[in-house]
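Subject: for your reference before the review

Hello V.,

The reviewers asked for a structural picture of the protein, and I figured it would be easier to keep everything in one thread rather than splitting it across files. Below is the amino acid sequence we used in the manuscript, unchanged from the supplementary table.
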Amino acid sequence: YQMYEYVTRELPALIEAKFPVIAGLRSVSGHSMGGHGALICALKEPGMYRSVSAFAPICHPTVSGWGETCFSTYLGDDRNAWAAYDATELVRNGAAKLPILIDQGTHDEFLAEQLFPQDFLVVCLERDFPISLRMQEGYDHSYHFIGTFIGEHLAMHAKTLYEVL
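And here is what came back from the structure prediction:
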């Protein structure tokens, strides 16, 4: 199963074939590992998505325990190959710019040792990326967190998509 191919090729084609959407006008979002996936899909596919948002994404997996475990299993021991699937490294290495919204709970149990949104923010600011990283006081990694802010993510995507019409 190839999740990257599914998200960037198969799912968009299916949506465009089955729903009344404007072909090619897309945004992407995700939570945690899915947030990581949303970020890398948007950063690796210039022009495919008009905006990207994420809730508590794994922003720098090449330096996190989760990322090291996954990447060594799926990509082998060559850490240079891992950079192609690390949002922080993609931005550092010249990914095309697009609007990014990230919400991160301050009480997320994975924040300090797995997620590293501050690394991503620093690189985005260095490259003048249009990023909004919002640290949400008191929120953890749960779906209640997502439910609280999903409307704002949808509104950001709607605004970004509407601007190109």
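For the response letter, the relevant points are probably these. The chain has a mean pLDDT of 97. The radius of gyration is 15 Å.

Happy to draft the paragraph if you're swamped.

O.
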